[in-house]
Amino acid sequence: MARGIGIGDEVAVTATVRRRLTEDRVSVSIPSYNFPHSIIDHTKVKKGQPIELRGYVTRIDDRKVTVDLGQLVTVDLDKVRLMEKYRAPKRRTPLRDKVD
After folding, report:
1. In angstroms, rounded to a whole number, what is the distance separating the alpha carbons of residues 68 and 74?
2. Domain ranges of the chain
3. Are 47 and 18 in contact (CB under 8 A)?
């Protein structure tokens, strides 16, 4: 787990806009992901413009990371940027009952 990325962390992947498919959908190119990917985008981005996609890490393999971007996308570890570490929720009450 290089660079401190773990399961549940929020990460960002910088993609490049390829073309506009419909009025609200854009085709993007994600580095080291060799499949077509499209996202819903209501802003007016142009062809070639970089766009940041955020998601949560679901799996880490040797040098690959699987990120949930609406669908699971597997990219190289060096293509993701850590945005926020996962913090487990704190318990408010103990697991055991109180002994009287």
Report:
1. 9
2. 2-84
3. yes
Q: Two tokens at 26? A: 């854009």
Which tens digits make up the pLDDT trace of 14-61?
999 999 999 999 999 999 999 989 999 888 899 999 999 999 999 999
Query: What would the DSSP string read from start to end of 28-81?
Result: EE-TT--S-EEEE--S---TT-EEEEEEEEEEEETTEEEEESSSEEEEEGGGEE
What are the two backbone dihedrals, phi and then psi, of residue 9, each rounded to the nearest 5 degrees?
Answer: -70, 150
φ and ψ of 29, to 5 deg: -110, 120
Maximum separation of any 2 CA atoms in the chain, in Å: 69
In the three-class reduction of DSSP (H, G, I as helix; E, B as strand; rest coil), residue 99 is classed as coil
The per-residue DSSP string of 57-71 comes to EEEEETTEEEEESSS
